[in-house]
Structure formats: C-alpha cells, structure tokens
Design a protein that fits this description.
The chain is 84% helix and 0% strand. The C terminus is likely disordered. It has two domains: 441 residues, no CATH class; 71 residues, no CATH class. By secondary structure, it is mainly alpha-helical. It starts with a helix and ends with a helix. α12 runs antiparallel to α14. It has 21 helices and no strands.
C-alpha cells in the first residue's frame, strides 16, 4: 500500500470535513456568540464528541480492525465470510449494550451535565435545566456513532477508507443547514436547534455507511448475543484502548469542566473554538495516519514482516513531522488573524477573538504530541497490546489534572489548553520510550537526518509569517471577503517559505517531489 496515497485520500476528505466544520463554527459564532447559550450547547456536544474520539476513532477501531483483518487474511479460513461472522458477533453484543447505555445516560443527564461543568459558573436553575435539556437531545448520537464505527471498521479493513472519512461531512452539513435555516434572534433557541442537528446527523452517517456496506455485499444480520472467546477478547481489548486512544479527549473534558466552573461565561467557547482550529491539522494528519497505519502495520506483522512494519512507522512519523511542524508554528504565530478572519462576526466580538487566539497558541504547543500519539499507538494495537497505552494515558491524565488546577487561575482560558498540551507531550514520551525499549521502533537514518531540518524549516517559516502578519493586520478586521483574502495570502506565504526551506535544507528533496508526482500521475 502507498502510505502517502492512502493518507492523501483520507486527508483530502477530512480536509473537506474540517473546512465545513470551520464554516459551521463561523456561523455558530455569528448567530450565538460567546455566551451561556454557546457554552451550554458545547458542553452537550462535548460528550458525543468525546465518545466519537474514544470509540469510533479509537478503541473500537484499535481492537476490531486487527481481529477482523486476522480472520479475513487467514489462509486456512473462509476469508471475508469469517470476518463478517465475527462482525455480526460483535454487533450482537454491541447493540444491546448501546441501547442500555443510552437509556441510562438519558435518565442520569442531570448529574452527567453537572459532572461535565461543575454546575457552571454563576448560572440560575433554569439555565442549568436548559443545559441538561441539550444534553438529553444529543445523547442518542452516542449509540448512532458507535454503530457507524462498526461499519467504518469493516470498510477500512477492505481498504475503502474514503467512505468512512467522508461520514463526518454529513455532521457539518446538517449543523450548517440548522444554523442557516433555523437560527433565531434568541441564541438559546439556536443552540437547541443545533443539539437536534447533532442527533439527526448521527442517523444520516449510519445510513451512509450501511448503504456503502450493502454495495459491497456486506450485510450484517442481527443475532442473539453470543459470549464466545472472540467477543470476550474484543471487549477485553476495547476498554483499555478507550482510555489509551482518548487521553486527549478526556483531558479536554477535564479542562472544559474546570473552565465552566471557575471561569466567566464564554470561556468554554474560547477553549472550544481554539480547539476546533487546533483539530484541523490533527484531523488531516493524525486521524488520517492512524486510520491508515493500524490496518497496514497489523497486516505486515500478521505476515511476519517486522522490517516492513518498522519502515511503515518511520515513514508515518516522518510524514507527521513534515506536515505538523509548520502547522504548529503557524497557529502559534498567527492565531490572532486566523481567529479574527474565521470567527470575528456578529455576536463574536474582537475581545472574543483575542481570547480565542490566546487559547489557540496554548493548545498548539502540543500539536505535534497530539498527532504523534496517533502514529505511535498503532505499534501497540497492531500487536494486540492495549494495556500499555492505557497506563501511559492514565499517567498523562493525572499530569493534566494537576496542571489544570495549577494554571487555570493565573492563566484563565489559556491554562487548560496549556495543561492539555504538556500532558499529551508526557504521553508521547512514554509511548516512544516503551516502543524503543521493546525493539518495536527505532528511528532510521533518513528520519534522524530529516527531523531537525524540518524543525528548522518550520522556524524560518514562522519568522516570515510574523513579518507578513504585521503587514496584513489592518485587513484582518475588514469585511469577510477582505479577511478571507488576507488569511489566504498569509497561509500561502507561509506554505511557500516552508516549501522552499525544506528543499534548501535537504529536509525534502527534489527526488522526493519527483517520486510523489510520478505516483500521483499513475494513480
């Protein structure tokens, strides 16, 4: 498999989804602003977002995909038929568990909302009841997106990466439609309509993936739950993988809860908007690499190709650094014009964009770590080891909690993002050290040569963007067209400087470029 091509397919669709997500967030800022209404919706949206990251993009894929692939690739079995029988067994247990979990969460929505917010900061009983109502509206999304993850895992294993990668586009289109067609002068009404849109989008995503499976003659028939050895192994792998894959999300939940309780109204929104910008490169690079690396490495290890698996992970790390380092520097240096161009409209004030840019800079310090977690954890999951990542994730969550408590008062809305960034860096350091100790990963000569050159190229780009930002500052608070053009010029200038710097420093050679162009020509 061509790793760059597969990443390009997933990354391209994820880019479309993330761009639509920015459109959604821009409209959200315009119609709702940074207020209790926005904070209440974002708390209600945090739970399904966390569950999606923990389950759909993390635990289930990490446990299910290697087991499904092992059955499909087994030369002594029936290939895909064996894999689908295993998928049906997984569904027979997953569906009733999800139904019961959904009912329980609906019943305990009040204490759940309180746990996510600490009761908010200085809100009335009616306002808190409104936040609980929004949580109840979004809770069914958890069941829907979990079923989406089952079908997505099957499609990824069959190399139909694009179908699963395109599903989140439906979420953004649904929420954009709700904002454009059902916004109200009352931001509370608009927030409620957004919550309804979340659950509707889950149903649309499920129908999309189910239809894609049917087109491949993949039909899962409902069965009575069977607690056989395969199902027990799957469940044993899922729970530790959930904590391991979702360390960043759990850290964000802790940060959000503390911000809701200790900081002024609007702070949750600043942190959320900053996280959304930070999630753009994470979605394009980290999730795309994680989606491609896990089935690739598990297949290579299943075939006894240890050397190939090591090379795949080296190239994955190299790709991650190539794309992540300039994104990190760009978001830190140019957070203010980026936030102003995307969110600074309507109810979202200039002060709101300034605070968002501050939170973004703190988040972005940890961007390489967020993405490297996605690159390193497949080295454990492909070997059916989900316990080691969960131990390290737990340690990083403790670091995050301690730093949150230490930083939230002196740094306000910048404290939780910075704590999350540092905690993620600690997680990456432990994962890397353990893989190296076991002999499962060692940076090869090419990676050792290129990594410091990529870092220097990114720093040179940051200097250039700092100068360009000074020239473009008068334009980032103009009309939406002027802001968009100013942002496009700023990003293009940074990309040009970074590209030239990587070539000049030998971090990315002409031979690499020619090879990439030849591959694109033949695909």
């Amino acid at each position: 498999m061509n790793l760059a091509k597969a990443l390009g397919t997933v990354g391209g669709l994820t880019l479309a989804s993330r761009v639509l997500g920015l459109v959604r967030d821009s409209l959200f800022a315009r119609f709702i602003g940074a207020s209790f209404a926005s904070d209440a919706f974002l708390i209600a949206f945090r739970l399904p977002n966390m569950f999606r990251a923990l389950f759909a993009e993390g635990a289930f894929a990490s446990a299910f995909v290697p087991m499904f692939n092992a059955r499909v690739a087994n030369p002594e079995g029936e290939g895909l038929a064996d894999g689908l029988r295993f998928a049906e067994q997984a569904l027979s247990v997953l569906l009733p568990v999800l139904i019961v979990l959904t009912l329980l969460l609906e019943a305990f929505a009040w204490p759940l909302t309180w746990a996510l917010t600490g009761g908010f900061h200085a809100v009335s009983a009616d306002e808190f009841a409104f936040a609980v109502k929004l949580s109840r509206i979004t809770i069914p999304y958890l069941m829907l997106i979990s079923l989406v993850s089952l079908f997505g895992g099957i499609l990824n294993s069959l190399h139909k990466f694009w179908v699963n990668a395109a599903a989140p586009i439906l979420l953004n289109l649904t929420l954009i439609a709700a904002l454009l067609l059902f916004h109200s002068p009352d931001p509370l009404v608009t927030a409620r309509n957004q919550a309804i849109g979340v659950t509707v989008s889950g149903l649309l995503q499920l129908l999309w993936l189910a239809q894609a499976c049917r087109a491949l003659n993949v039909r899962l028939k409902p069965r009575r739950p069977v607690w056989n050895a395969d199902v027990r192994q799957l469940l044993a792998l899922i729970w530790p993988a959930a904590a391991g894959a979702g360390a960043v999300q759990i850290n964000l939940v802790i940060s959000t809860a503390l911000a809701a309780k200790l900081l002024a109204s609007g702070s949750v929104t600043y942190i959320y908007m900053a996280d959304r910008l930070n999630q753009l490169p994470l979605g394009l690079i980290g999730i795309g690499l994680g989606t491609v690396l896990l089935p690739t490495i598990s297949r290579q290890l299943g075939g006894g190709e240890e050397t190939a698996a090591m090379d795949t992970q080296n190239r994955g790390l190299e790709l991650a650094l190539l794309l992540t380092l300039p994104a990190t520097v760009g978001l830190v240096v140019c957070g203010e014009p980026i936030a102003a161009a995307l969110f600074g409209y309507g109810r979202y004030t200039a002060l709101d964009t300034h605070y968002t840019a501050q939170a973004l800079a703190a988040f972005s310090v940890g961007l390489p770590s967020y993405i490297l977690v996605k690159v390193l954890t497949p080295g454990f999951y492909a070997r059916h080891d989900t316990r080691t990542p969960v131990r390290y994730a737990t340690a990083s969550m403790v670091v995050n909690l301690v730093l949150n408590l230490a930083l939230i008062v002196p740094l306000a809305h910048m404290g939780p993002p910075l704590a999350t960034a540092i905690a993620s860096t600690v997680n990456v350091a432990m994962l890397y050290r353990e893989l190296s100790r076991r002999g499962h990963f060692a940076p090869d000569a090419q990676l050792r040569r290129r990594a410091p050159r990529l870092a220097l190229a990114a720093l040179l780009m940051g200097v250039a963007m700092g100068f360009a930002q000074g020239w473009l500052t008068p334009y980032v608070h103009g009309t939406w067209l002027v802001r968009g053009l100013a942002l496009a010029v700023l990003v293009s200038a940074g990309a040009l400087v970074y590209g030239l710097a990587t070539l000049a420093l030998g971090a990315f050679t002409r031979a690499d470029l020619q090879l990439l162009l030849r591959r694109r020509k033949h695909t």
